[in-house]
Design a protein that fits this description.
The complex is a heterodimer of chains A (76) and B (191). Chain A has helices at residues 2-9, 13-45, 51-75, and one strand at 46-47. Chain A is an all-alpha fold and 76 residues long. In chain A, helix 2 runs antiparallel to helix 3 (51-75). With 191 residues, chain B is an alpha+beta fold. Chain B is 38% helix and 29% strand. Chain B has a 5-stranded antiparallel sheet. In chain B, helix 1 (43-58) packs antiparallel against helix 2 (70-97). The chains are: A mainly alpha (76), B alpha+beta (191). The interface between A and B is medium-sized, with 31 and 34 residues. Strand 1 of chain A pairs antiparallel with strand 2 of chain B, so a sheet runs across the interface.
Chain lengths: 76, 191
């Protein structure tokens, strides 16, 4: 009983916050990957207009989101 | 046809380069027009993006997150800008890929409603029954954009090209293409 009370008293809200932040960022990474796939599909539907640039930007966004996820994982 | 004009980010591309193609295009089919919403219709989300971009600066005047540890405040700002970046990119893609392609054979309408939904429909030019257009609102009148409505005898009864630049000219081109296509059909030159 004492252990339970002490664990409740020592409960750190920021650990929970960290989990939520990381879940949110993981969802963002998945979303960024969907964007990469969708840009690839759309540039296959219509090709020749900014195809390379749009694919490049979508990959940069995805890789940047992975980088941010890993950085925050280490930072928090 | 009007002379070749427009670039990759134009709302109205006339006779684009040969390198521009769509996936169901026949080898002999030529793209005559590519239509998107007029660029001015992007202003609402552009201003929204500006607000999102400068919003974290407001926190220096209203320290809403002052009770948070320093590193969590930093993370909040990073996440905020990630969301802003994705918002801008998604809105741009939505405008960029929502297009209508008019070839010498048909109309291809590409609807890219959001990142997970797209719809592609087409109609042969000789199936066009009626073309009409309107300019609506103050901006539509000032910047000369509006809707072009195309009634067809195809499976999709009506195509609406929303907020396209120079709707009168687009409607006129469609009418002329339809007439040419009917003449070709009468002369037995149809592909």
């Amino acid at each position: 009983m004492d252990n339970l009370i002490s664990s409740i008293l020592n409960f750190n809200i920021w650990n929970i916050a960290k989990i939520f932040v990381l879940i949110g960022l993981a969802v963002y990474v998945v979303f960024a990957f969907i964007v990469v796939r969708q840009v690839k599909l759309m540039t296959e539907v219509v090709s020749g207009i900014l195809t390379g640039i749009l694919r490049f930007v979508s990959w940069i966004l995805f890789l940047f989101s992975v980088f941010i996820f890993l950085s925050i994982l280490l930072l928090l | 046809m009007p002379p070749q004009s427009g670039h990759s980010l134009s709302s109205l591309l006339v006779l684009p380069k040969k390198s521009v193609r769509f996936d169901t295009q026949d080898p002999e089919e030529e793209i005559l027009l590519i239509l998107r919403r007029h660029w001015i219709t992007n202003l609402p989300w552009f201003f929204m993006a500006l607000v999102l971009f400068f919003a974290p600066a407001v926190l220096t005047f209203f320290p809403l997150l002052s009770s948070f540890p320093e590193k969590y405040r930093f993370v909040f700002v990073i996440i905020w800008y990630l969301i802003t970046l994705m918002f801008i990119f998604e809105k741009f893609l939505s405008w960029f890929f929502n297009m209508t392609i008019i070839t010498d054979e048909r109309i291809v309408d590409i609807d890219f409603t959001n990142l997970t939904t797209k719809k592609i429909s087409d109609c042969e030019l000789d199936k066009i029954q009626d073309v009409s257009f309107n300019n609506s609102g103050a901006f539509g009148t000032i910047f000369n954009y509006g809707n072009v409505m195309v009634q067809t005898a195809a499976e999709i009864v009506e195509f609406v090209f929303e907020d396209v630049p120079r709707p009168a000219k687009v409607a006129e081109i469609l009418q002329r293409l339809r007439t040419e296509e009917k003449i070709e059909a009468l002369e037995g030159r149809i592909r």
